[in-house]
Amino acid sequence: MKTIPFIFLLILMSLPAFIQAQKVNSLIRNGNRLYKEKQFDQSISQYQKAVQAAPDNSAASYNLGNAQFRKNNFDDAVKSYDAGIEHSADKTIKEKGLYNKGVALIRQQKLDESIEAWKNSLLLDPADSDARENLEKALLEKKKQSKPQENEQKEKQKQQEQPKPQPSKLSKQQVDQLLKALAQKEKDVQDKMNQNKTKSLSQPDKDW
């Protein structure tokens, strides 16, 4: 007889949780219906209410991420996928969340983060051909982007390796001698030019 109040208490305590779960499920169903009808703003509103009522509901977070993605709210979508991944014990939801997260990240030109997401997705489901294909494309793009940087680094290294012009090691006396030799050579050239000019002027005019 003493156990009856205890059982009755348990029923009373579980009833609000049951009602709350029903409410959350109803919101998710409404969101799914609106999503299929491409009414994404309305579906987002329903999913957000479901997440507010049950923050640990992975399905609500995952579906919210999908609706946000359709509205091109990629940053919000990534956050929703992360919440779904964090609170899910379901391997499938985790894998799909990581895959979709990778797609949302690549839309934001976040190449490294998308690669990481698809890698983790394949760890959960190595048979996911879409994740594998996207990962291969992302890795190829990363390789293309890194090539110009590698060439630039090689060019800088090549320039650094080129010998720098060495300063003159001639003594002051040698420098003076070199300057005198150049001056003498210039004088000789000038004298020769003057001689040729004189010869040209000394010739008589031609008698026509």
Architecture overview:
- Among the domains are: 17-89, Alpha Horseshoe (Serine Threonine Protein Phosphatase 5, Tetratricopeptide repeat), CATH 1.25.40; 92-142, Serine Threonine Protein Phosphatase 5, Tetratricopeptide repeat.
- It starts with a helix and ends in a 6-residue tail after the last helix.
- The protein is built from eight helices and no strands.
- Helix content is 82%, strand content 0%.
- It has 208 residues and is an all-alpha fold.
- It is rod-shaped and about 120 Å long.
The CATH architecture term of the domain at 17-89 is: Alpha Horseshoe
Overall SS class? mainly alpha
Helices and strands, in order, run as HHHHHHHH
Mean of all residue-level pLDDT scores:
81
The count of strands amounts to: 0
Task: Tell the overall outline.
Answer: rod-shaped
Bin the strand percentage: under 5%
Radius of gyration, in angstroms, nearest whole number: 42 Å
Measure the end-to-end span: 157 Å
Structural key phrases:
208 residues; disordered C terminus; 82% helix; Serine Threonine Protein Phosphatase 5, Tetratricopeptide repeat; 8 helices; mainly alpha; 0% strand
